[in-house]
Amino acid sequence: MPPFPRFRSVVRPVFSFLLICSVTLAGPAPAAPPVEDSIAQRVLACTGCHGAEGRAGADGYYPRIAGKPAGYLYNQLVNFRDARRHYPLMSELLQPLSDDYLREIAEHFASLDLPYPAPARAVNTPATLTRGEQLVRRGDTQRDIPACARCHGDNLMGLTPSIPGLIGLPPDYLAAQLGGWQSGVRHAHAPDCMAGIAQRMAPDDITAVTRWLAAQPVPAGAKAADAPARPLPMRCGGVPPAQQDGGLTQ
Ligand code: HEC
Ligand code: HEC
């Protein structure tokens, strides 16, 4: 195996993105051949890592972005640009981009309505799956962990505009995000409700919840909810105030 197996797939999109940025920002030079100026063309650099149409990279490392709620995607782009989340190759690409442009990119990916892959086969013990489902559906009052479904929706497809779905994602990606909140590598807009929730989860809880979530198929046509069934159980930054009850912040 070469020492840097991702080198080519990473460097290629970075260069094409920079090229596209410079064309977009400066306008095409008079002698340049005509460049198709559509948003789909401009985000080709993103799909170099995030898979065709943003359906996720092949190896579970580059997350799906297609069809996630627009406000959530926008908040993440701002978070990477402003160093609340860290992936230097992507953050550097976002540095020169304005809020309006990031919103346009977010709306483009959010509007893509594409099927999800079937869950990968995995061997899970019944105890792991039972614990995972318990946390998702009912939470754990002893640890002060609210049910994930209270915010991520009963069908776990998220809540527009700012809360993402939790199914259709690889377990390693989910575990990395919860670990990132525990260790302080990932931050959301304050109050960062997910940091509080992740920090109360034991390592076995993270394994259980991510294994159960990753084993759930995404039903055809399943969509994020437009309103929560009840106000959210904690306040979360970046979520419209009307969806929250002004309750706990952490
Ligand atoms: C060099 C590869 C690379 C490029 C190019 C890239 N990304 Fe990413 N992106 C990643 C990785 C890796 C992550 C996950 C990082 C993590 O685990 O926090 C990520 C995360 C994201 C997320 C957060 C997903 C979520 O569910 O929270 C969004 C949104 C995103 N990228 C959008 C974009 C857009 C839009 C572009 C183009 C402007 C882009 N990315 C370009 C590698 C890349
Ligand atoms: C009080 C509301 C609330 C509850 C309860 C909640 N979440 Fe979240 N979750 C959020 C919000 C808001 C975000 C978006 C954070 C951001 O903007 O980065 C999020 C994001 C996430 C993400 C990131 C997804 C991605 O694509 O990167 C994961 C993973 C996650 N939550 C898992 C869970 C799990 C597991 C539980 C239950 C143990 C849970 N959440 C309970 C509000 C909540």
Task: Describe the protein's architecture and organization.
The chain is mainly alpha-helical and 250 residues long. It folds into 2 domains: 104 residues, Cytochrome Bc1 Complex, Chain D, domain 2 (Orthogonal Bundle); 123 residues, Orthogonal Bundle (Cytochrome Bc1 Complex, Chain D, domain 2), CATH 1.10.760. Helices cover 44% and strands 3% of the residues. The chain has a two-stranded parallel sheet with strand order 1-2. The longest helix has 20 residues. The chain starts with 6 loop residues before the first helix and ends with a strand. One heme C (HEC) binds next to helix 4, helix 8, helix 9, helix 10 and strand 1.
Question: Topology of this structure?
Answer:
Layout: H1 7-26, H2 39-42, H3 44-50, H4 70-81, H5 88-94, H6 99-110, H7 126-137, H8 148-152, H9 171-183, H10 193-199, H11 203-214, E1 232-234, E2 244-248
Parallel strand pairs: 1-2
One heme C (HEC) is lined by residues 10, 13, 43, 45-46, 48-50, 61-63, 65, 68, 73, 76-77, 85, 87, 89-90, 93, 105, 164, 176.
List keywords for this structure.
single chain; 250 residues; mainly alpha; Cytochrome Bc1 Complex, Chain D, domain 2; 2 domains; two-stranded parallel sheet; 11 helices; 3% strand; globular; disordered N terminus; disordered C terminus; binds heme C
